[in-house]
Amino acid sequence: MKENEPDILEVLIRHELVIMELYELFAGMFPERRDFWAGLANEERGHADFLGTLQSREDFREWFESSSRLKPQAVKISIEFVGKQIAWARERKFSLIEALSLARDLEAALVERQFGVMARRAPGEIRVVMEKLAADTERHEKVIDGALNEEKRRSH
Q1: Closest to 13 measured CA to CA, from 45, 38, 58, 42
Q2: How many angstroms separate the first and last alpha carbons of the chain?
């Protein structure tokens, strides 16, 4: 890792927080689904907090740097993408179907999918956190997909 470059855990935390920001924005945009989006946003905050607990230990940071196989640049690209979606959502109104589709795609994205892969390779305490994140991500994807399918049925 280069000097002044954030470590992978720091970048993963930022990734969770930008997704949280997007879901909070959607909670305000779709009052009829406020609780749905706010719940997802709160869980993303929890993911960032979980990752923060790992960041406090040098041995965990070293494992992520050497063994997670997740590249900070890939996560940064995802953060930039979500940031652009936030800006776009503020400029023009997303439909609920567009918001749900975007959320589903984010939850299914490579970065989020890596939690499960990392969990299988991780040592004990890291594995517990990564398994929780992987399970939450899978559940988010299913819940969002269900809401998306419901909304599509309603709009036809």
Answers
A1: 45
A2: 51
How far from 25 is each of 44, 65, 82, 154, CA to CA, in Å? Answer: 13, 32, 12, 23
- Taking only the tens place, the pLDDT of each residue in 132-143 is 888 898 899 999
User: Cα separations (Å) of 145 from 69, 100, 122?
Assistant: 28, 8, 29
Structure tokens at 153: 């049925």
pLDDT at 123 over 70: yes
The two most distant CA atoms of the chain are separated, in Å, by: 54
150, 104 Cβ separation under 8 angstroms: no
Output the CA–CA distances (angstroms, integers) from residue 70 to 32, 46, 149, in the order listed. Answer: 37, 20, 32
Kindly state the tokens that stand for 76: 């940064």
Contact assessment for residue 53 and residue 129, using Cβ atoms and an 8 Å cutoff: yes
Domain boundaries, the chain: 8-155
What CATH number was assigned to the domain covering residues 8-155?
Answer: 1.20.1260.10
Tokens describing residue 83: 């940031």
Would you state the structure tokens that stand for residue 91, as one six-digit string?
A: 């400029």
Using one digit for the tens of pLDDT, what is the confidence trace for 93-110?
Answer: 889 999 999 999 999 886
